[in-house]
Specification:
The protein has helices at about 10-15, 25-35, 40-50, 65-75, 90-95; strands at about 60, 80, 100. The protein is α/β, with parallel strands linked by helices. The protein has one domain (about 10-105): 3-Layer(aba) Sandwich (Rossmann fold). A three-stranded parallel sheet has the order 1-2-3. The radius of gyration is 14 Å and the shape is globular.
Length: about 120
Amino acid sequence: MVSSSANCHDVIVAAGIEKFLEVRVDATVAAREGLAGKPRPDTFLEAARMLGAEPRQAVVYEDALVGMEAGRAGGFGWVVGVDRVGQAEELRRHGADTVVTDLADLLDGGSAGTVDGGGR
């Protein structure tokens, strides 16, 4: 989990999903480690490093334009834009390989609101 939020840990615990996450790089970790925020890829790269994965083996899921830029700058294998506010074209211009309106669209048979199947 990568988040620019300082309360990321509390949100994860409240949602009951902490056990599903192997690593967390949030604002607290970024400050402690001196990692630059988006559009720099530092937090994403740190999470990949902590997982023992090369960036090209990992996916970035983001709803922010600067997140698309960070994913692309970090050399990640796939950058998925989550269009929550009607900015699909902007997400693509900023580096998204694929844009969806709902992450369920990425599951087999998902059709909640795909914007495109994208791909490079």
